[in-house]
Design a protein that fits this description.
Methylamine Dehydrogenase, Chain H, mainly beta, 4 domains, Immunoglobulin-like, eight-stranded mixed sheet, single chain, 800 residues
């Protein structure tokens, strides 16, 4: 009989948090630590049996030579912080040589069960089981269990399992159904004591079946292996499933492999988890290779157990003995191959995963310091996110002293790309900040980040940052959806990717900039090419830019501003977004100074007079008064608000224009260059009665000063345009019988428009100089002279 212990650790705890490779929720097993007995001894084979429940693990060393050869021992380790510390070394008080205490171990909560299958209490090698309980500070023996009908060579305790309330014990060499047919004994914890509850045998048990060579207990079900069952062939093996109905344990299924063959020893190792059962056949000749080993997965469909898969290593070799030990979790299977030959019989563990439709191999694990004959994977236990793999042949503490290795199924990172993101189109290139910082790693591992996108319109300033800036090239679309992918890695598991949506929308009006206020003269072009155009920027390549004008003419002929144009610019993009701004264009009349010349003084200006009124026009620089349109001259009177009233009808005003410089002796302007440019003489021929009537003048005693307004048009032949002008001055009316004194007054330049000054300066006059105007605004009569009347008109203060 081969006494090499197989894995009998009960798979007791939920494994639902365990995560594996090649999917967004998977992770890779990572080596965590190596444990050995603090008092390691040669040939102890520490690790022949293992059990794991959360933060506590138990390891059997059945060949420990203390206190006698092969008396055996068991060790308990507990996790403290990030370390696993040995908490106890257990040995029975009645230990004896070759009892092999520690051949099987099982743990659940504070209950630890240790098998001693070669104990002689009920006869030679009848076997026994020891129960220990943790009281909060130490592990104390609570009971020693013997089969009620135990006999020599039953090897009771060869396999054990517990869930804290039940203890199942295998006696594979019991003879109840024939020699070495095997049996199972169940104990129940009742009123502070463990009481034998049932003795189970296979309904078709037969000699040599060895029922109870392996056990698994989970959720009211008990799975037991009979590796030497001869159905369907000699030593092909089988497994039996028993269920507790609340009153009794009953056989519920007899599991046989679809490809079972002689000497496969199907049932040498078993595991049970929920509705899944896993049975090992370590001597299966899979793919015609001798004893490569295989495992079979069965699933309960609600009424019966059906074979779901046959698991074998992708790199199987003869005598690997895959599935000599195994464990099972949620869609995960761990299979030990203790004779795998990375080094001769160094051993390994294979990880298989159910992907929703099939079971696939996903990893192969090795001891980090594995060596020949270590037999890594000879025993396996797993709980939650950890697995315990034994190497009972490890020689570090002496020949076959043994060791165990903890691997953690570190969880993959949780990927969070943030979003969904919405960006407002900002122009040719729009940007927004991505945020993947909410990604996390359950194991606390540092994460690396990588952002990507298949869309050429997207780019990242730093794709390895958790919070990069995303740039999006503009497109004609008013709204466009993109996707970005974040891949995070903890350096231990497969990278995990997640995506977030990005929407680029154009709901922002175009950025519109209007020209500054523009001043032009009458007749100048106000087209955008001359007055300036607006500019618009937008995410869309095509922006329609239009304008509309609203004109407000001046109500006063003497106002230098002829009209004000309010130009409204509107920019509209292809998405219907629009914006507006206003530009002001002031259209100025040409500035002209009107000086009345005395002409043929004395002239009588009364209700019976008529004659010619001479005047001199002095314009701003650049205006050619040589082309004054005499048809545009008007004589009018302004009211107190400066608004023209009662202009003289054109038919009552005969016009004649004399062009050229004024006589030098008149002293208006002594220009060095006496050209016609900027100077003109105009003569208005009229009948005074028409003037009086048209301007609604009432001539009484004394002199009356009225405003004389002359408006006109200057036509520039070279530029093919016309410019308005306006001139304002004072005219003194002298009643009949009066004679005005010949006053030589001075006019101040303080109130002249600034645009006139350069022209005056060209004539040798500065801004502070006085302009000598001969008899400015003064009319003569043949009678007496009366002076002293004064009036402020236009932009100048004139004295007469």
């Amino acid at each position: 009989m081969n006494r090499l212990e197989v894995s009998r650790a009960a798979f007791l705890a939920s494994f639902s948090a365990l995560i594996f490779l090649t999917s967004p929720a998977t992770a890779q097993w990572r080596y965590e630590t190596r444990l050995a007995a603090s008092d390691a001894a040669a040939v102890a084979e520490f690790g022949s049996a293992v059990a794991l429940d959360g933060e506590v693990l138990a390891v059997g060393a059945p060949n420990d030579p203390r206190p006698a050869d092969h008396a055996g021992a068991a060790y308990v380790f507990r996790r403290s912080g990030s370390s696993w510390l040995q908490q106890a070394r257990l040995a029975p008080p009645d230990a004896a040589a070759f009892d092999e205490f520690g051949s099987a171990v099982a743990i659940s909560g504070d209950v630890l069960v240790v098998g001693s299958p070669f104990d002689d209490d009920a006869g030679r090698d009848s076997g026994s089981v020891y129960v220990f309980r943790f009281d909060g500070s130490s592990w104390a023996q609570e009971a020693k269990l013997l089969a009620v009908a135990g006999r020599s060579f039953d090897n009771f305790g060869y396999a054990v399992a517990t869930d804290g309330q039940w203890i199942a014990v295998g006696a594979p060499f019991d003879d109840d159904r024939g020699s070495n047919s095997g049996s199972l004994v169940l104990f129940r914890y009742d009123s502070g004591a463990w009481v034998q509850f049932a003795l189970l045998t296979a309904s078709d048990g037969a000699a040599g079946d060895q029922l109870g060579m392996s056990l698994a207990l989970n959720g009211g079900r008990l799975l037991a292996g009979a590796p030497r069952d001869d159905a369907p062939a000699t030593n092909a093996g089988s497994a039996y499933l028993f269920a507790f109905d609340g009153a009794a344990w009953n056989e519920a299924a007899h599991l046989l492999p679809s490809a079972g063959a002689a000497n496969d020893e199907f049932g040498l190792a078993v595991a049970l988890h929920g509705d899944l059962a896993l049975v090992g056949a370590p001597k299966d000749d899979f793919d015609r290779e001798v004893d490569v080993g295989a495992a079979y997965v069965f699933r309960f469909d609600g009424s019966s157990w059906q074979e779901e898969a046959r698991l074998a290593a992708s790199d199987s070799s003869p005598n690997d003995a895959l599935a000599h030990a195994l464990a099972l979790g949620d869609d995960v299977a761990l299979l030990g191959a203790l004779q795998d030959d990375r080094g001769t019989n160094s051993g390994s563990v294979y990880v298989f995963r159910f992907n929703g439709s099939s079971w696939q191999q996903h990893d192969q694990l090795f001891a980090p310091d594995g060596a020949a004959f270590d037999s890594f994977g000879a025993a396996i236990a797993c709980s939650r996110q950890r697995a315990l793999f034994a190497a009972p042949g490890d020689d570090d503490g002496g020949d076959a002293a043994g060791a165990v290795y903890l691997f953690s199924a570190g969880q993959s990172p949780a990927c969070d790309a943030g979003g969904p993101y919405a960006a407002e189109c900002q122009g040719p290139l729009s940007t927004l900040l991505l945020d993947g910082s909410r990604s996390s790693d359950p194991d606390g591992d540092a994460l690396s980040y990588l952002w990507s996108s298949d869309d050429p319109a997207l780019s990242f300033d730093d794709p390895t940052s958790p919070t990069p800036t995303l740039s999006i090239a503009a497109s004609p679309a008013c709204s466009q959806d993109f996707s970005v992918t974040l891949t995070v890695s903890d350096g231990q598991s497969d990278p995990v990717s997640c995506s977030a949506g990005v929407t680029l929308a154009d709901t922002t009006p175009p950025r519109l900039s209007c020209p500054a206020e523009v001043v032009v003269f009458s007749g100048d072009s106000t087209d955008p090419a001359d007055a300036g155009g607006a500019s618009a920027g937008d995410c869309q390549p095509d922006v329609q830019l239009v304008y509309s004008d609203a004109e407000q003419p001046s109500e006063c002929a003497a106002d230098p501003v002829a009209r004000t144009v309010t130009r409204t610019w509107t920019a509209t993009d292809a998405c219907g977004n629009s914006s507006s701004c206003e530009q002001t264009i002031r259209v100025m009349r040409v500035v002209v100074v009107l000086d009345i010349l005395p002409g043929q003084c004395p002239n009588v200006r009364n209700s019976r007079s008529q004659g010619v009124l001479h005047m001199n026009l002095l314009a701003s620089p650049g205006l050619d008064l040589a082309h004054v349109d005499h048809n545009g001259l008007r004589l009018a009177r302004l009211d107190c608000a400066g608004k023209p009233v009662a202009p003289m009808p054109p038919e009552k005003l005969a016009r004649q224009l004399d062009f050229g410089s004024p006589p030098a002796d008149q002293g208006l302007c002594a220009c060095p260059n006496e050209s016609a440019d900027g100077l003109a003489d105009a003569s208005l021929k009229f009948r005074w009665s028409d003037v009086q009537s048209a301007l609604d003048l009432v001539v009484g005693d004394g002199a009356t000063v009225i405003e004389l307004v002359v408006t006109g048009v200057v036509y520039d032949k070279a530029a093919a345009l016309s410019r308005e002008f306006v001139a304002v001055d004072c005219l003194t009316l002298v009643p009949p019988g009066y004679r005005a004194a010949l006053n030589h007054g001075d006019a101040s330049l303080e109130d002249l428009p600034p645009e006139l000054l350069p022209g005056l300066e060209a004539c040798g006059l500065g801004a502070a100089a006085a302009v000598p105007l001969t008899m400015l605004g003064l009319l003569c009569t043949a009678g007496r002279t009366r002076a002293g009347a004064s009036r402020t008109a236009g932009r100048r203060r004139l004295r007469v």
